[in-house]
């Protein structure tokens, strides 16, 4: 990226952050969806924020793209993992969303992921569901989705 391109990119990112701060989430999301492909791999902060703002703007496709890149570059990021899960779930890519939960929870401890799983368990099975370990519960949720 040339200096001119980098300056233009940075102006757009800064403008998106300003719009978001003033509550103009949709406008911020539109700018970010246009520069998403230009966000360099070393700008994880912008990728994660782009994913979050795009999700808030209900642009789940581009949110998933931003979070996918962020997770590929920083697989230990719990926030980006959850962001990817939620974007994929909103797109009704349930298997992929559950795959992301399995990927992250197989090697990391995260109270946010565990809380999400508890909420999903109650939503799918009610409070009477017998206890299961996290990965087993994800597979039960996956089976429930395919049975319906």
What does this entry look like structurally?
The chain has helices spanning 3-21, 25-35, 44-56, 60-73, 78-90, 94-105, 111-125, 134-147. The mean pLDDT is 85. It has 148 residues and is an all-alpha fold. It is elongated and about 55 Å long. 30% of the residues are buried. The chain contains 8 helices and no strands. It starts with a helix and ends with a helix. The longest helix is centred in the first third of the chain and has 19 residues, at 3-21.
What is this structure, in a nutshell?
With 148 residues, the chain is mainly alpha-helical.
Biggest sheet overview: none
Mean pLDDT: 85
The assigned structural class equals mainly alpha
Strand percent estimate:
under 5%
Could you name the ranges where pLDDT drops below 50 across 5 or more consecutive residues?
none
Q: What is the overall shape?
A: elongated
Percentage of residues assigned to helices = over 70%
Please give the radius of gyration in angstroms: 17 Å
Number of strands: 0
Q: Helix-strand pattern, N to C?
A: HHHHHHHH
């Amino acid at each position: 990226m040339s200096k001119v391109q980098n300056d233009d990119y940075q102006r757009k990112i800064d403008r998106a952050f300003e719009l978001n701060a003033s509550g103009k989430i949709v406008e911020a999301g539109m700018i970010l969806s246009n520069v998403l492909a230009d966000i360099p791999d070393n700008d994880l902060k912008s990728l994660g924020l782009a994913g979050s703002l795009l999700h808030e703007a209900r642009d789940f496709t581009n949110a998933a793209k931003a979070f996918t890149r962020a997770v590929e570059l920083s697989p230990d990021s719990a926030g980006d993992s959850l962001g990817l899960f939620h974007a994929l779930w909103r797109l009704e890519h349930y298997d992929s969303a559950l795959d992301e939960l399995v990927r992250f929870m197989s090697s990391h401890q995260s109270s946010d992921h565990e809380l999400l799983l508890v909420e999903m368990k109650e939503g799918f099975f009610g409070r009477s569901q017998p206890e299961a370990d996290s990965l087993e519960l994800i597979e039960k949720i996956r089976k429930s989705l395919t049975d319906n």
